[in-house]
Amino acid sequence: MNCRALMADDALKAVKSADRVLTLFELLGRWGREMSHSQIAEALDIPKSSLTQLLRNLVAREWLRFSPLTKGYSLGPAIEALARRAMQARDLVQLAQPILATLTATVGESSALNLLKGDMAEVAATVLGPQRLVSHMRLGDVAPLYATSGGKVILAFLPREMQEDYLSRVVFEPSTPRTLRDPAALRRQLATIRRRRTGHSIEEWTPGIVGIAQPVLTRAGSVLGAINVAMPRLRYDKAGEVRIIEALARATAALSERVEGAPPA
Q1: Rounded to 5 degrees, what angle do the CA atoms 116, 120, 125 make?
Q2: 253 versus 261: which is more confidently predicted?
Q3: Phi and psi dihedrals of 147, rounded to 5?
Q4: For the sheet containing 209-217, what is the strand order?
Q5: What long-range pairs does 89-98 form, CB within 8 A, spacing at least 24?
Q6: 75 contact partners, CB below 8 Å, separation of at least 6
Q7: Residues 6+ apart with CB under 8 A from 227
Q8: Distance of alpha carbon 96 from alpha carbon 188, whole angstroms
Q9: Would the CA dihedral through 176, 182, 183, 189 be positive or negative?
Q10: Of 81, 157, 177, 232, whose CB is crowded by the most CB atoms within 10 A?
Q11: From its phi and psi, is residue 118 left (phi > 0), alpha (psi between -120 and 50) or beta?
Q12: Which has the closest alpha carbon to 150: 126, 124, 122, 114?
């Protein structure tokens, strides 16, 4: 068998394995209670020897839960956590809108909620500023994490292993002459952001636009997203920056409290 045929065979095996995993999740979800090894093998028409390793891997990664007492399998905490995060993200967007409206009214500039989407930051909610010259952040807009204030804040507060994985493979594509291109410089900025809880992007994604952002955190310190304020650079000054940072702190604390029911620790 030639190299191309081997690659095609491996790809088919990977698809088949992924399909088995998804079918297993659907089966356990519909079943609503534990299933034994034999019941799963029969329902999915999988040889018991093949199923054993699959179940072992899924239990190890907490996608499944195994009960030694009943010898049964059920959906695990990783599935439950994923479902909670999906619901939390939906709630976050709904709860953010009035907070963004208050923020924009306070500082007189456009504001937005940014969420992680792959290796990008996505605008999930936004309020346009009242000025004639404003920064437009449209729903669904995405940008590299390294280029925007919201993206850098999200990246700075990601778990260490996720952050290192991103930094090990990111390819910098300059959008403006000021876009970061050096991993070491990005690392320094991320360390500063974690200390100060504030990130900046000064004409790094859009010429003439400055962004300032802070994280929305859970009580445990996990990042849910970031709120940013964006303005033309001609209106950016230190006095205004202080006022915006103070307003951002109130906005992110309010959103964290509404999502979790109490301010983050």
Answers
A1: 55
A2: 253
A3: -105, -20
A4: 142-144, 120-127, 110-117, 223-232, 209-217, 199-202
A5: 89/115, 89/124, 89/224, 89/225, 91/259, 92/124, 92/216, 92/224, 92/225, 92/255, 92/259, 93/124, 93/125, 95/255, 95/258, 95/259, 96/124, 96/125, 96/227, 96/255, 97/125, 97/127
A6: 25, 28, 29, 63, 64, 65
A7: 96, 99, 100, 103, 111, 112, 113, 114, 150, 213, 214, 216, 248, 251, 252, 255
A8: 30
A9: negative
A10: 157
A11: left
A12: 114
- Tokens in use for 122? 């996505």
Contacts of 71 (CB under 8 A, 6+ apart): 36, 37
Residue 2 in tokens: 């030639």
CA 96 – CA 102 distance, rounded (Å): 10
Q: Residue 135: which pLDDT band, with cuts at 50, 70 and 90?
A: confident
Residue type, 227: I
Q: Specify the higher pLDDT residue, 216 or 31.
A: 216
Cβ contact 232:211 at 8 Å: no
Q: Which of 28, 13, 101 is nearest to 64 (CA)?
A: 28
pTM: 0.70
